[in-house]
Design goal:
36% helix, 4-stranded parallel sheet, Cobalt-precorrin-4 Transmethylase, domain 1, Rossmann fold, 316 residues, alpha/beta
């Protein structure tokens, strides 16, 4: 039987960002340098396929330093950790490598600088997300207040409304964050913002690409993990841009083909922690079922690259 025709809009940029690429390389290089096992505090990035692949190489993923022996190296995830974690690792004389994304580290430095200038911090982020926990953990608890929505701003109890600054999680929805910032500025006119937006270039670029393809598609598939903040935001951006059907799938086997029956145009993108291999897998699954016309829609070029820590650039 002849296949149904389908227009496939492939968003670009998509998939791995520089921070994720660096973090994965750090674990791979640590395994090469010290051999297995290498311990990793929290999933190095939020993607089961990536984590399982590194586990197969000898990485052991844990949620606490208490689960790590002192005679094996430990890597801190790309999301960042509270300041107490490396302090404790140093106290225990552990070898550790920090894989925190440099753009997250920039927010950490920003928070410390504002605090040193006497400003109380307001963090825009998702409660419990490891990046939010890590960023808030750079300062004493009373120095950082968390807001998740614009509605949260009204109930904030601050020390001094004239001495405030805000920072954000790097993987948020650009549009939702703008609404929260507007609410903060309306209530606290003297609040200080970052010199450059905290939401990272990769998050912004992937959301912008989805907005561009949304006007041409009936359905959007976002390849990413259910615990990936930036991937979930892409689904939300697609829905807000008018996609009647927008779903997060971890890989091709998760696609609900019945939901796509009769649809003429589908968009595909991937969160910043989803490898290209999973994107290829999804494209192949579509090619098996449809007579495809693939349109690659590129809205930005990314040439960012971050160096791995010096300890891994040195010979064994």
């Amino acid at each position: 039987m002849p296949k149904d025709t389908l227009n496939l809009y492939l968003a670009a940029p998509r998939g791995f960002c520089a921070g994720v690429d660096r973090a994965v390389k750090i674990v791979e290089l640590a395994l090469q340098k010290w051999g297995a096992p290498v311990y990793v505090r929290h999933e190095i990035v939020h993607n089961k396929f990536v984590v399982d692949g590194l586990r197969d190489l000898g990485a052991i993923f844990v949620e606490s330093l208490d689960d790590c022996p002192t005679d094996r190296p430990v890597v801190f995830s790309a999301h960042g950790v509270p300041k107490s974690v490396p302090t404790e690792a140093a106290r225990r004389e552990m070898v550790y490598v920090d894989a925190t994304c440099p753009l997250v580290s920039k927010v950490h430095i920003e928070a410390e600088r504002h605090s040193a200038n006497g400003l109380q911090m307001i963090m825009i982020g998702h409660a419990g997300h490891p990046e939010t926990v890590g960023t808030m953990g750079q300062l004493p608890p009373e120095e950082v207040l968390l807001v998740e929505t614009a509605a949260d701003v009204a109930s904030l109890k601050v020390r001094d409304p004239k001495k405030l600054a805000f920072i954000t999680q790097t993987t948020l929805s650009v549009d939702d964050t703008a609404d929260i910032v507007s609410a903060l500025q309306a209530r606290f006119p003297q609040i200080v913002g970052p010199h450059k937006e905290d939401i990272c270039y990769a998050t912004t670029n992937r959301q912008s690409a989805v907005k561009v393809i949304a006007k041409n598609i009936d359905a959007l598939l976002v390849i990413g993990a259910p615990n990936s903040s930036n991937s979930k935001r892409l689904v939300e951006v697609g829905k807000a841009a008018g996609c009647k059907y927008a779903q997060l799938v971890q890989r091709a086997t998760d696609i609900d083909w019945r939901a796509l029956h009769g649809i003429g145009a589908v968009g595909i993108t991937a969160g910043a922690s989803a490898p290209e291999m999973l994107i290829d897998e999804v494209l192949n699954a579509f090619a098996e079922r449809f007579d495809l016309t693939v349109k690659n829609i590129e809205t930005a070029k990314e040439n960012v690259e971050f160096k791995v820590p010096r300890i891994l650039r040195e010979s064994v």
